[in-house]
Amino acid sequence: MNDQKSPCPIQATIENLAQDLKPVTQCRNPLGVSLLWGAIALTYVMAVASMVGLRSNLSARMADPIFTFEILLALLTGLAATFATFLLSVPDARGKKWVLPIPATLFAVHLLWMFVRMNAEGMGPMPSLAFSYCWMDAALMAGIPAILAVVLVRRGATVRPVFLAFNAVLAMSSFGWIGVRLTCMHDTVGKAYLINYLPYIVVGFAFGLLARRIFRW
Fold first, then answer.
1. Predicted TM-score of the model (pTM)
2. Which residues make Cβ contacts (< 8 Å) with residue 35, sequence separation at least 6?
3. Which of 170, 144, 201, 26 is nearest to 84 (CA)?
4. Cα–Cα distance between 49 and 183 in angstroms, integer?
5. Which of 33, 71, 79 minimizes the C-alpha distance to 55?
6. Which of the four pLDDT bands, split at 50, 70 and 90, describes residue 180?
7. Which partner from 71, 78, 131, 145 sits 20 to 30 angstroms from 44, CA to CA?
């Protein structure tokens, strides 16, 4: 007589479902990854800005409250977008979904500020679009941090790839724009905002279209 009991049907079903599963690593702490990437990105941008050459009137510009407000606003936007990016690389956003609207809100403030300045000062003289050395600086400042961000995010498991891509581009463009403002002598709305932001807008649009492929599981 065989005394060995047959497995419970439910237990057998669980074992059948789980037999081909492989162990997975736990998602990294979004705050820790954010601090790591943010520190690397800001250090890299400052290093590139120093290599390109800081603007000759930087000391005077830093004493201008309008200029410092714009720099600080971009910095806060970049930091918030960085944290949101790596929160979104975790399916449940670690229960901190209240953080996610903050970067877009700060960016909206930045856009509103641009229109306020435009209404008060006008667009200002704008160089030809062929005048592209600032674009090259912008690409250089954001390139390496962008590659690193993609590598780190792909180790997670996002369920909102397009929204993640928006925040990632916002983080990179905010930090890169700070670097451009520290090196480029133009302060008009047309040059400082529209021309210098244009490369990031183009990259962001392309990044958004490819987000589902780049960040799929």
1. 0.78
2. none
3. 170
4. 6
5. 71
6. confident
7. 131
